[in-house]
Design a protein that fits this description.
This is Protein BatD. It holds the Pfam family BatD. It is built from 8 helices and 30 strands. With 586 residues, it is of the alpha+beta class. The chain has 4 domains: 111 residues, Immunoglobulins (Immunoglobulin-like), CATH 2.60.40; 132 residues, no CATH class; 112 residues, Sandwich (Immunoglobulin-like), CATH 2.60.40.740; 112 residues.
Length: 586
């Protein structure tokens, strides 16, 4: 009996390694991280292998690795082996990315890991580097968002200035934007920096150098607490190492740092309801009102031009000049809107105007009543009303209103005198010749009808083969169908490419109509973030959804900012491509 127990124990002891299962798996430090954080990826195996092949790490940049570690322990007579390849990755953009399959060769067999999806979201306030102390660069560098005012009124302009602070021991060789703020619930315009200049300053009480990377003017469009998203940068930093040359000078090395500004919250105050004029249209700032006319004395049916102008400093692009009321005996054409607005760090400054073409129909003296314009004055935190002076227009040389014009007397009827030469061109005795009808048999038409179908047979065969080839080309059919659909929806925008305002209105309407037709929902009532979420839920790729939202934003920006014909053509072609891409994916 004891012999049998010994035999069984020896059998399992010797056969144990034969039944040992090979494990090769991938592990990540987190499956959701901010764009300013780093990800650790470990490829771990329980047996030694050769020819390790890592994945391509699309959507990430390798900042350290591969670091190899081996663990080989005996515990109570049992061997435990582990070998790990570790990588430290930095995201290059927001979105969902897949850590692909790695492979290893163990005992002449190829083993592969299971892919892992990792979601990269907006930058976090306290980033973590995946527990890798070796990749932290030396020296101090900070990205700061400075806001001119954190408690503005609705439609009051504020500025956000992004500054990069660098300590004297550190130098920056380059930078690139990873994540750009979207400025939801704000009207925004970037102020271009003509030249990057370095200034001397302090940060947290210490001397630093800083450069202004980006400046943006914001006008809040709703009250309450609004968040300004962080800006994320990939910065190339030159830092000192612990090694020195023969002269004692430290060696420098280049590392990449992901920097983000903190999320800032703006508490927007609503405009007071007390004392708000009935004709208030949302103007906030400091303005002047003026009305101009090129003449006050003219003849009936002669045109004159009336210009209503608002000028000053404030949200000029976010409201329209007041409408003028004219006598109903004047023919008034649709006014022409013009704007001459310059946006700086102090906000919008300039003028907007509407030019009316007016044609009086009757003579007389007409009084143009005064009209008013109201705005909220930020200096006094109160409403101000501007009123123009009335004036008269004198019309001469026409009929008086209400009096019918005199009709001219009818001429006397004259007898019609017939001339014998009037109908001489009519031939009364034509010389008609009978024309013989040609025989159909063996005529050219006869032979063409006989041989024509036989000659068409090769053409029919060729067309049939070509049609079959097109039908088998499924991808090509989808592409052609998607392109036809895109051009169908964008046909109106294409017709209006000569008019910037009409083009972008038609383009935005076409994009919403496309989604309405494809998704059977009213996307015009949704926010851009909601539209992007719906597209992603329908299986649209992140790049296509983001490009669709960018075009919608371009439509909004182009209403208030001038653009070129080349930019209009580029936006049209981009819209055709993105609709085609989304249609194929849905």
């Amino acid at each position: 009996m004891k012999t049998q127990h010994i035999f069984v124990a020896l059998f399992f002891l010797l056969a144990g390694p034969l039944f040992a299962q090979v494990k090769f798996e991938a592990k990540v430090s987190k499956e959701k991280l901010g764009v300013n954080e780093r990800l650790r990826v470990d490829f771990e195996m329980n047996q030694d292998g050769d020819n390790f092949q890592p994945p391509s790490f699309n959507g990430f940049r390798v900042v350290a690795g591969p670091n190899q570690s081996v663990s080989n322990m005996w515990i109570n007579g049992k061997r435990t082996y582990s070998k790990t390849y570790s990588y430290f990755l930095s995201p290059t953009a927001k979105g969902t990315f897949t850590i692909g399959q790695a492979s290893i060769e163990i005992d002449d067999e190829i083993y592969k890991t299971i892919p892992i999806d990792v979601e990269v979201v907006t930058a976090v306030d306290t980033p973590k580097d995946g527990d890798n102390k070796d990749i932290a660069s030396q020296g101090d560098i900070h990205l700061v968002a400075e806001i001119s005012k954190t408690n503005p009124y609705l439609n009051e302009g504020i500025t956000v200035v992004y500054k990069l602070y660098v300590s004297p021991e550190t130098s920056v060789s380059g930078w690139r934007e990873i994540d750009r703020p979207k400025y939801a619930d704000f009207w925004s315009q970037n102020i271009d920096n003509d030249q990057l200049q370095v200034h001397e300053g302090t940060y947290q009480g210490k001397p630093y150098r800083y450069a202004i990377l980006r400046s943006t003017v914001l006008y809040p469009q709703k009250s309450g607490k609004l968040e300004i998203e962080p800006l994320a940068l990939d910065v190339q930093v030159e830092v000192r190492t612990n090694r020195r040359d023969i002269f004692g000078r430290p060696f420098m090395t280049r590392v990449n740092r992901t920097l983000t500004s903190s999320t800032r919250t703006i508490d927007v105050k609503p405009l007071p309801l007390e004392g708000q004029p009935a004709n208030f249209s949302g103007a906030v700032g400091k303005f002047d009102l003026d009305i101009k006319t090129n003449k006050t004395k003219l003849d009936a049916s002669e045109s004159l031009e009336l210009v209503v102008q608002v000028k000053g400093n404030g949200n000029l692009k976010l409201f329209n000049p007041p409408k003028i009321t004219l006598p109903n005996t004047f023919e008034v054409y649709e006014p022409e809107y013009k704007e001459n607005v310059n946006t700086t760090l102090s906000g919008m400054r300039g003028s907007i105007s509407e030019s009316y073409t007016v044609i009086p129909q009757f003579q007389g003296n007409y009084s143009i009543d005064p009209f008013s314009f109201s705005y909220f004055d930020l200096e006094t935190n109160s409403y101000k009303t501007l009123t123009t002076e009335g004036f008269e227009i004198e019309v001469e040389g026409g009929s008086v209103a209400g009096t019918p014009s005199n009709s001219s007397s009818s001429p006397k009827r004259q007898p019609v005198v017939l001339n014998s030469e009037q109908f001489k061109y009519i031939k009364l005795k034509p010389n008609l010749v009978e024309e013989k009808q040609p025989h159909f048999f063996k005529s050219p038409l006869f032979w063409s009808l006989i041989t024509g179908p036989m000659l068409m047979i090769p053409i029919f065969i060729f067309v049939g083969l070509k049609r079959k080839e097109i039908e088998n080309d499924v991808a090509g059919q989808r592409l052609r169908k998607a392109n036809r659909l895109a051009k169908k929806y964008l046909s109106e925008a294409k017709k209006n490419r000569g008019d910037q305002k009409l083009f972008y209105e038609s383009l935005e309407r076409a994009l919403h109509n496309y989604l309405k037709a494809k998704l059977t929902i009213e996307t015009s009532d949704f926010s851009k973030e909601r539209i992007e979420g719906i597209l992603l839920d329908k299986g649209v790729k992140q790049d296509s959804a983001s490009e669709f939202i960018d075009i919608l934003k371009s439509c909004e920006y182009a209403r208030y900012t001038p653009t070129t014909e080349g930019a209009i053509q580029m936006d049209y072609e981009k819209s055709v491509d993105v609709i085609s891409s989304i249609d194929k994916q849905i």
